[in-house]
Amino acid sequence: MDEVSLAVENLKKEWDQTVSQLQDRIREIENCGKSGKGTEEANALPRLNGAAQDCLASLRSMQGDINPVLLTCSSAPEFRLDLLAQQLPTMEEVQSGQALVEIWKDQYQKLHMGLRNANLQTKANIKKAAQEERELLLGGGEESTVRRRNLQTKSGMTSAAESITESLRRTRQMMVQEVERSASTLATVDESTSVLKKAESEYKGHRSLLSRTRGLLSTMKRQDVIDRIILAVGLLIFLMAVLYVVSKRVGVLTLQRKIVAAIKSG
């Protein structure tokens, strides 16, 4: 099994685990308000809904809709099914992966609707239980007094627990954001390092080219000096040859004049 197929199998297992956790949260939400403890269960409802929303965010990320910051249910998945399906080795596996994406989307919609219905039913149950508690607390007798004391104690403990849980969730979210920010910073540093290395390589190439260019310029300067010397020597030789020829010509003409003068006088 290649790496992509193995990643798809691991993603399926993670999906099943997250779905199971979400179904547990939905059942817990559905049971809120059925035990007659309206106030206590109303305080616990935000925590259960927060955990359920984290699970939904994880499912959306795994099927490829979004890439959120996940909180409680599971850590952010390393892969997304919609991207992995396109990298499977055979066309049959690619089609199967794409079909699985659609199945996951339908399953997600059903879970989302189930969570919404559970919240609606729970709110009605909590409202009914709170009304019964109110009627009991407003009644007289020792039972009502004991009930009020127990309710105050449990309400305080539940409120403290909810506050601690919410604080921990916020702290974890901040830690996840800091980790992501650090990862982004490291990626930026790596990219900058790569750019600097590329610039250094280009600079070395340009420096070598400049060195060769300077050598060629020096050679051209030397050649220019040699050419000038050759031209000067050639010009000097040419001028000497001209002077020689001229002097020879002048001597011949003088001799001819003397001969002609001698003939005329003789």
Tell me about this structure:
The protein has helices spanning 3-31, 38-63, 81-85, 91-138, 142-265. It is mainly α and 266 residues long. Helix 1 runs antiparallel to helix 2 (38-63), helix 1 (3-31) runs parallel beside helix 4 (91-138) and helix 2 packs antiparallel against helix 4. The model is unreliable at 66-78 (pLDDT under 50).
Tally of alpha and pi helices: 5
Mean pLDDT: 77
Residue runs with pLDDT of under 50 for 5 or more positions: 66-78
Gross morphology: rod-shaped
Domain Sec20 C-terminal: 159-250
Family: Belongs to the SEC20 family.
Organism: Rhynchospora pubera
Keywords: Coiled coil, Endoplasmic reticulum, ER-Golgi transport, Membrane, Transmembrane, Transmembrane helix, Transport
Layout of helices and strands, plus pairs?
Blueprint: H1 3-31, H2 38-63, H3 81-85, H4 91-138, H5 142-265
Helix pairs in contact: 1-2, 1-4, 2-4, 2-5
Features:
266 residues, mainly alpha, 87% helix
Structure at a glance:
The chain crosses the membrane at residues 229-247. The chain has helices spanning 3-31, 38-63, 81-85, 91-138, 142-265.
